[in-house]
Amino acid sequence: MKTAIILFNLGGPDSLDAVKPFLFNLFNDKAIIGAPNPIRWLLAKYISAKRAPIARGIYQHLGGKSPLLEQTQDQAAALQKLLGNDFKVLIAMRYWHPFADQALQEAKAWGAERVILLPLYPQFSTTTTGSSLKQWHQLAANSFGETRTVCCYPVEPGLIRAMAAKIRVEWDQAVGQGRPRLLFSAHGLPQSIIDKGDPYQRQVEQTTAAVVAELGIADLDWAICYQSRVGPAKWIGPSTEDELHRAAADKVAVIVAPVAFVSEHSETLVELDIEYRHLAEKLGIPAYFRAAAVSSHPDFIKGLADLVGDPGAARGKACGSQCLCKGEA
Ligand SMILES: C=CC1=C(C)c2cc3[nH]c(cc4nc(cc5[nH]c(cc1n2)c(C)c5CCC(=O)O)C(CCC(=O)O)=C4C)c(C)c3C=C
Ligand SMILES: [Fe+2]
Ligand SMILES: [Fe+2]
Questions:
Q1: What angle is formed at CA 17 by the lines to CA 16 and CA 21, rounded to 5 degrees?
Q2: Which atom of ligand 1 is nearest to 121's Cα?
Q3: 158, 219, 274, 310: most buried by Cβ count inside 10 Å?
């Protein structure tokens, strides 16, 4: 059966001019700001204009654009190679090109009889996977004979092996620095979204526990923390900054490992590699290491291919009532 795989991701600006409209798309998403229109539209206009200069500064560090699309294209190509010609792997970004409607047209033009919706977010959140799935269902309606959904895969074995492998590279360097602390840093979320039942935080904890078990390091000192807070509302914690302050007080070296990102982009290359590294130096942390994202690690790509074969295989214990998989597969 001809099967299109739709890889969902956030998208990122492809030029400095694209930063403001990208931010507008993000803040105009009901999954991010729940207010009804026209209030949401007005808020999105206001916040995107206010945030744009800060965000432009971030993307300037990356040569004026996000590397997220190239990274996602590499992952798509690696998955395509593994799956073969009965499959067509397509990318649907939520807030910048290529958008979901493009992937939908390409899937139809190719003659897909079945689609498998595969987010590049291991943990389900209403703000990421939920938003992309909702948009897909609105656009695609009944366009295909069969649609299957991978809602989440927080404990997928290939993902876990790949994360552990990336961490081990840094661990081997860091052990020369006493007893380093491993900080699993995930993108944060407003506390109000978690309070409404979003399973993201629970699933981040599941991923972390699985990686710690895979590492098998005796007496490992580790913690989970949350980065990338935007706006004045209360976000889940502890923040990555808080954890850096604690590490400074304890005089331990740190390895910061992304646990919710599967590719490199502004949140890793700028926030983790520049901003938090700088803070760590300022605070006098003995040494700062950063584990790479899994990107196209063969174990991760093999894990994605396994999910295509069995979409429900690595679902978190608690994908829960807010998840849109509706108990499929
Ligand atoms: C209120 C705002 C935001 C929520 C909630 C949020 C959730 C969320 N985001 C990701 C992954 C990524 N976010 C990225 C960038 C980014 N995110 C927000 C805001 C929220 N995200 C903004 C404003 C931005 C733009 C950059 C900035 O201004 O700081 C990215 C990187 C994109 C890129 O560089 O190409 C990713 C990836 C997750 C996983 C998540 C909730 C679980
Ligand atoms: Fe974000
Ligand atoms: Fe689910």
A1: 115
A2: 39
A3: 158
